[in-house]
Write a structure and sequence with these properties.
This protein is of the alpha/beta class and 396 residues long. The protein is built from eleven helices and 17 strands. A three-stranded mixed sheet has the order 1-2-3. A two-stranded antiparallel sheet has the order 4-7. Strand 16 and strand 17 (331-334) form a beta hairpin.
Length: 396
């Protein structure tokens, strides 16, 4: 059966329409290279299509009527559009959703190192683009700068012909053979099998996720190790358990003895402190109608809300998780009570010896070997060589 190429069946008018749609699509990609830019572009297109900001209805205390078209811009990073129909909401509604896919490298807010006019920046990336694909191509800098007075400034550098461009350099191909074979996750885990003294710097996430958990598994039980916490550890997290002196912890199904020295360096944080938050909210020319404290420990949130109430005259509250407030109606729909975090008692934690950990590691190795059955001969041979090398090292 011969398949007809659909492209050849289009009329001249249809081809012209395809070209127009493609040109508009390319223009959207050029104008919306970040989530904020995409949302701003979509909001402008909504206004052109007759949509009105819901905040204007709220400000004017106006009632929505059948046929009204409104939009809500959520902090510049999400957009919701509503078209008011004839039937009551109880009869249902149609919802169309779309994700703003914006592949990019994000520059973290605090430089790792800064001196004179040189800054060493940390990054993390989104959008499924592999790390090596960012190298050796011209890049532009898009972002928003938040100033101390509460105002923001949007910046774009690298899009105009006479702008400087940002480039991440790469190794020459004939010098990068060894580097190209490496896998970042494997390199990170292999650090733990290097017996030389070392400093491991790892993103913590309060120790509840990420590679830090692998590093902790291999080093918490070593008396010669020191675990340094340089950030806040929230209640109920593994990091908080260690800072408060937990003697055993559970990682990857194993109970690990905490023999390492635990050090907590207080005062370092990427968040604003109490003084910084008060300066920020005090700079608003038009004071907010309400302020909600939704991030922090219960006692701190409650205390900060009282400060805003008593010293700044603001209607501030510290709701618990699960509470629901209707901004349009300016009323609480659901108010929940706080649920205290139950801390596990040390007596309830069953510790196992280091030799037991070694036996468990051997059993896991057998499972990994079975999972690789049917793999490529080259990979299996390499795996076998690595196991033999490890056995030769420890068979004494």
């Amino acid at each position: 059966m011969e398949r007809v190429n659909r492209w050849k069946t289009y009329t001249d008018e249809q081809l012209e329409e395809v070209e127009k749609v493609s040109s508009r699509y390319k223009s959207c990609l050029d104008a919306g290279k970040t989530e904020r830019e995409s949302v701003s572009l979509a909001a402008d297109m909504a206004k052109e299509a007759g949509y009105k900001d819901l905040a204007e209805y709220v400000k004017e205390n106006a009632e929505l009527k059948c046929g009204d078209k409104v939009y809500v811009n959520q902090m510049g990073k999400a957009l919701a559009l509503f078209q008011i129909g004839e039937e009551p909401l109880e009869r249902g509604m149609n919802i169309l959703g779309a994700h703003v896919d914006s592949p990019r490298l994000d520059v973290k807010q605090n430089p790792l190192y800064e001196e004179s006019e040189l800054a060493y920046l940390d990054t993390h990336y989104y959008g499924g683009i592999k790390k090596y694909q960012w190298a050796a191509i011209p890049l532009a800098l898009h972002g928003t700068v938040a100033k101390k007075d509460g105002t923001t400034v949007d910046i774009t550098i690298g899009e105009k012909e006479d702008d400087p461009v940002l480039v991440i350099s790469d190794l020459l191909i004939h010098l990068a053979g060894e580097q190209m074979e490496k896998k970042a996750s494997e390199d990170s885990k292999n650090i733990n099998f290097d017996t030389k003294p070392k400093v491991i710097i790892s993103a913590a996430g309060m120790c509840d996720a990420g590679r830090i958990r692998h590093h902790l598994k291999h080093n918490l039980w070593r008396p010669e190790s020191t675990i340094v916490f340089a950030g806040y550890q929230a209640e109920g997290t593994l990091g908080r358990t260690l800072v408060e002196g937990g003697k055993t912890v559970k990682l990857f199904g194993e109970t690990i003895d905490v023999e390492a020295r635990i050090v907590n360096v207080e005062g370092l944080s990427g968040h604003a402190d109490r003084k910084g938050l008060l300066e920020w909210i005090g700079a608003f020319e038009t004071k907010p109608d309400r302020v909600f404290m939704v991030h922090g420990e219960d006692t701190v949130c409650t205390s900060f809300a009282m400060t805003l109430n008593q010293e700044y005259g603001l209607n501030a509250e510290a709701p618990f998780s699960g509470s629901v407030f209707d901004l349009a109606a300016n009323q609480w729909l659901t108010e929940t009570a706080g649920v205290p975090i139950n801390k596990a008692k040390a007596a309830q934690r069953k510790a196992i010896g280091v030799y037991g950990r070694l036996v468990a590691a051997g059993e896991r190795l057998l499972q990994v070997i079975r999972h690789n059955e049917g793999g490529a001969n080259k990979d299996l041979a390499k795996f076998a060589d690595q196991i033999h090398a490890l056995c030769d090292k420890w068979d004494r």
